[in-house]
Amino acid sequence: MRKLAFFPFLALFACTQQPDVAEDFQSTVCNADGTVTFRYRNDSARSVMVDVQFAGRHDMTRDSVSGLWTATVGPAAPDMYPYHFVVDGIGIMDPECAAYFPNEGFKNSLLEVPSADGKALPHDIRNVPHGTVEHVSYYSANLGAVNHAVVYLPPSYATSPDRSYPVFYLISGTTDTEEVYSKVGRANFIADNLAADGLAEEMIIVMPYGNPYKLLPVVPDAASVPQTNFGRDIFSLDFTNDLMPFVERRYRTIADREHRAIGGFSRGGNQGLSVGLHNLDKFAYLCSYSSFTSTEIEGVYDNAADTNSKIRLFWLGVGTDDFLYGNARDYTEFLDRKGIRCVKAYTSDKFGHTWMNAKHFLNISMQLLFRPEAAEKAMADATPTRPAMGNEPQFTPGVMARLFPRPLISPEYADSCITFRFKAADARRVALVTETQRVPMQRDSLGIWTTELKINDFAPFTYHFEFDGTATADPQNMYITASPKFKRSIAAHPRGSFHCNTTGNIAYGPVAHDFTRGTVTYTPAGASPERTILLVPDVADGIDSWFTVAAANVVADKLLADGKIRPVCLTTDPSAANISATLRASDYATWSERQKALETLLLNN
Fold first, then answer.
1. The predicted structure's pLDDT at residue 141
2. Is 32 exposed, middle or buried (0-12, 13-18, 19+ CB in 10 A)?
3. Contact between 418 and 411 (Cβ < 8 Å)
4. Are strands 145-153 and 204-208 parallel, antiparallel or unpaired?
């Protein structure tokens, strides 16, 4: 059976092997009976399990001939599922899988189980016109720092320059990065498919980073950061006063409440509902996926007639097996009592608080956005909240602490050093492996391994940990190489010349991912490029590594802001027009050298 690639362009590049892997093999196989066989090579491991969201943890056994650890689990319904291997008690990504789950903490790979009858799933990458996904940065006055977002532009955006579009602000959940709704939620491909089938309006989708606290110079204590109450917090202020104006300056939006929607999953659903209800002059469409929000928002709940007149769609979905089901059910019951109309949607077959639910809810609710008649019919046909059974799970501080324990800080940056930490209580030896050195780590009484790396060069570099012969990315570092196979973590010291901490309040150009052409392209903000430089990744790199590791876009932004270069386009597309120079990653040993070579080329070309 076939294993689906996550993005079409991944197949364009050869892959290097994980350390100690002798040959390529297929690590996941979807069998005809709906089961999935997982395979993993590791000659050093003492025990291996696979942990996949549709089946939980299962022991793997090692074949004495092939040396592969294997397990067959399921059957599984067609969908996308996070999974990882547990090697000697430590969770690691599948080193043979290109697709992964971006997250501040845990690192999962992604499995696609296709439908047996060939019927397309809502999130499938179909042969339809595809929009573009842009990674953008903007200076936030409320943060006093640079924040990030992912923006989906529909297929006609580039070919219809006189057309403006409605905007859907879509926020992912606790510990998720701004990339999750595109890489895991497949929001862009769901939008492509719905638009191609005439089931939804073409729209811009803005996917912000929901936890800007991590971008502050001093991160507040986790206990002081509100997780269930929003409104005047940093996220909300950044969202309404910095992100929205940035989006409406940068893109052709229809900037009125009838053409703005907001929603999100988990914490993002809470944030989306709070921002929307606090700003009904700006938003007419509100969606919550597996979440709820405060019942104390002044002027909203006690004025049902006015609130109902403003909200075109109030859509709330949750799984009955979700740990937030009790809170979400109580919230919609509260809305019913207050006379505020809302659509309720329930599932019971998508494993609770999961991205299988998030994709499902997104696909349904997007068909109602910016379609007043369809939205009104859904609101008019809405049923009351399901009756309470008395045993609904409730979200409490204890549940929060169990699901999201206080993380280690790794890497931790100081003036001239970086401290790395890795928890592996049962490991016999652990090392930090960078591009240029291997450094033994020391274990404390809590099973936390630590080492301090003195640095003189503040350029970014990649690294990983190795415990008892097994390589893994740093589970505490949300910055990771999107390599086709084994993925390393990215260390980017805040003192680096081209770090957003030092570049500050300048204009940042977008980095656009074209899924039809399989290319990544940076264009300068507010200027037409006068030349194009081709950036060629190494065979072990992801297609966007020049941007995610070497910060090629920030290098160009900073030099352009300083008046040192003319506007330039940086691309991985070899067929691009006006290519004046080519830079190959394979010509340099480290990312520091690659970044310096790019700077030199930009200044001299």
1. 93
2. exposed
3. yes
4. antiparallel
In contact, 307 and 300? CB cutoff 8 Å: yes
CA distances from 237 to 100, 143, 147, 375 (A): 31, 9, 13, 29
Give the span between the Cα atoms of 283 and 466, in whole angstroms.
Answer: 49
Tokens for 539, please give them: 């065979």
Enumerate domains of the chain plus CATH numbers: 8-113 (2.60.40.10), 132-380 (3.40.50.1820), 412-491 (2.60.40.10), 506-604 (3.40.50.1820)
Number of other residues whose CB lies within 10 A of the CB of residue 284: 24
Estimate the crossing angle of helix 591-604 against helix 552-561, to 10 degrees. Answer: 40
Closest CA to 216 of 288, 153, 142: 142
The dihedral through the CA atoms of 294, 265, 120, 200 has a sign that is positive
Burial class (CB in 10 A: 0-12, 13-18, 19+), 407: middle
Q: Give the pLDDT score at 18.
A: 37
Q: In sequence order, what DSSP letters do the residues of 540-586 get, joined into one string? A: TS-TTHHHHTS-HHHHHHHHHHTTSS--EEEES-TT-TTEEEEEEGG
Q: For residue 354, which amino acid is it? A: T
Query: Which has the closest alpha carbon to 523: 466, 574, 568, 471?
Result: 568
pLDDT of residue 234: 87
How far apart are the C-alpha atoms of 410 and 414, rounded to whole Å? 12
* For residue 393, cis peptide bond before it (omega within 30 degrees of 0): no
Q: How far apart are CA 458 and CA 460, in angstroms?
A: 7
8 Å CB contact between 212 and 251: no
CA distance 490 to 199: 40
Mind listing the pLDDT tens digit for each residue in 111-135?
999 998 888 999 999 999 999 999 9
Q: Give the per-residue pLDDT at 242.
A: 96
Are the C-beta atoms of residues 37 and 72 closer than 8 Å to each other?
yes
Tokens matching residue 478: 């949300």
User: Which run of H or E residues covers position 2?
Assistant: none
Pick out the chain residues at pLDDT < 70: 1-23, 217-232
Tell me how many helices (H) and strands (E) the chain has.
Answer: 14, 32
Burial class for 92, CB neighbours closer than 10 Å (0-12, 13-18, 19+): buried
> What are the tokens at 415?
């003036």
CA–CA separation, 560 and 557 (whole Å)? 5
> How far apart, in whole angstroms, are the C-alpha atoms of residue 40 and residue 398?
35
Alpha carbon distance 564, 57 (integer Å): 55
Cα 433 to Cα 298: distance, rounded to the nearest angstrom: 53
Does a cis peptide bond (omega within 30 degrees of 0) precede residue 78?
no
* Residues 6 or more apart in contact with residue 381 via CB below 8 angstroms: none
Quickly list H helices, 138-266: 180-183, 187-196, 234-238, 244-250
N-to-C CA span, the chain:
49
Please give the Cα distance from 262 to 204 (Å, whole number): 12
Instruction: Kindly state the tokens that stand for 181.
Output: 């709704």
